Amino acid sequence: MRALGIGNYPFPNDDEGTYLAQAWAVQHGELAHYTYWYDHPPLGWMQLATMSWLPNWLLPDLPTFVQGRIAMLPVAAAAMVLVYVIGRRLGLARPTAAAAMLLYALSPLAVVLHRQIYLDNFAVLWVLVSFAFALSPRRHLWHHVAAGMAFAMAVLSKETIAVLLPVLLVTLWQGSHPSTRKFSFAGFGSGFVLTGLFYPLYALLKGELFPGAGHVSLLGTLKFQLGGREGSGSAFEEGTDAHQLFTDWLDRDPYLLIGGAAAAVCAFAVRRLRPAALAVLVLTLVALRPGGYLPQMYIVQVLPFLALTLAGLAQAVIARLPGKPHLRPAAALAAVAVAAVLAGPHWYERDRAATAADDNGVYHDAARWLRETPVGDRDQVRVVTDGVLWLDAVDAGYRPGTGVIWHYKLDQDPAVTKTLPHGWKDIDYVVSTPALRGEREHLPTLRDLFAHGTPVASFGEGGGRIDILRIENDE
User: Fold this and answer.
1) Neighbours of 264 (CB within 10 A)
2) Tens of pLDDT along 55-103?
3) Where are the membrane-spanning stretches (predicted)?
């Protein structure tokens, strides 16, 4: 289902292009396609780099963001399998664990967000690996060391997932034997710390751990990420970005979100379900904190635990029903039927829309224009694009970095601005996408480019259109 229409829906997010371009940079021996400023740990796009080359090689005519989305399919598949494994290790019966996996796999939120190129998808995969090791029924010490290493891999894929550390510790407490518990915690801590130290050690060796003049720094960027970003407002206040996000998430899948959250509250009464319930609680409290920054893809981190708590609580309730035990399978079938009647039509409509929609023809057309339209010597022509089309322009022969310029870097990166001594006059073309038009009031050079650009090609209509602007310089 995730593969059907993967290039046509949803509309590309600029983050997708950024991570894909950074993966391309890793394939060429760098950590980022521009100055790496420690915005995120690089492990996420390193993993993407190991996977994205195959779709690029097999399907070279597709836009690069579609190739990257295809590379995300194995990540989604592995996460589904791990939900089943964790369900079994939480004490769920095979049918219940399979039901949790299906809840996770078929949720309209998962169908859309798992096909997009987000670091959160890699982080969730490694968190699930960590939970699976922490709950290993064999309780081997190396399993708990591996749980710590896997959790470090999750944090190095997307640092915000670190809020689940207390949940992993509770899970490890529950999954370890009392007589060897201290060794289990020592092993987990060793695996986590020794693996995670590679990132600050890299910054230290580069002289970029601490803030200073003339260079980026890990701690300086971390300070910005924690307190310097504009907040999303309160989820309870209408008109804020956080409220809009929650409204959108609930519109897409109210059944798993509300049902899973309610189940998580009740699941604290069931000992074996507490790790999943605690994960839901922690991630929900972080999302609801006032004034914090809440990204669109954050909900990805919560979905597997919502599915596990909902399916697990249903099993626990059915197991405690009074009466004859042989009636419990009938009660389970009745629960499945009720869920199908309530959520089935909504999920079907949402999932069908995601697989049948065709919203991205403009990006396909723009990528084709970059590849096929003669504009002179592409090594000398300078074009500004959004993050999504940056790599398409590179593949088309434009010089990476300063020949094809990510719009965000026009006024933000000294390495780029010093190559533009005449400002906007040194640019030949702008690929005007919704992302660029949304930023032009904040970037002076981009605003000047729009003021002096003449359309030479246009794809689509309305706010989603893409225009190719040739910059008219009369001097």
Assistant:
1) 27
2) 999 999 899 999 999 999 999 999 999 999 999 999 999 999 999 999 9
3) 70-86, 92-111, 148-173, 185-205, 254-270, 275-292, 298-318, 330-348
pTM for this prediction: 0.95
Number of Cβ atoms within 10 Å of the Cβ of 308: 34
Angle at 195 between CA 194 and CA 197, to 5 degrees: 65
* CA distance to 243, 263, 300, 385, per residue, from 236 (Å): 6, 22, 21, 36
**Cβ distance 33 to 401 under 8 Å?**
yes
Q: What is the pLDDT of residues 90-143, one digit of tens each?
A: 999 999 999 999 999 999 999 999 999 999 999 999 999 999 999 999 889 999
Stretch (H or E) spanning 405 = strand 404-406
CB 466 within 8 A of CB 363: yes
Helix ranges (H only) for 90-180 are 94-106, 108-113, 119-134, 141-157, 165-175
How many Å apart are CA 336 and CA 442, to the nearest integer?
51
Half-sphere exposure of 413 (CA within 13 A, CB side): 17
Helix axes 254-267, 274-288, angle to 10 degrees: 120
- Could you tell me the two tokens for 168? 């992993």
Give, for 457, the enclosing helix (H) or strand (E).
strand 453-459
Q: Which residue has the tokens 């109210």?
A: 254
432 neighbors 467 (Cβ within 8 angstroms): yes
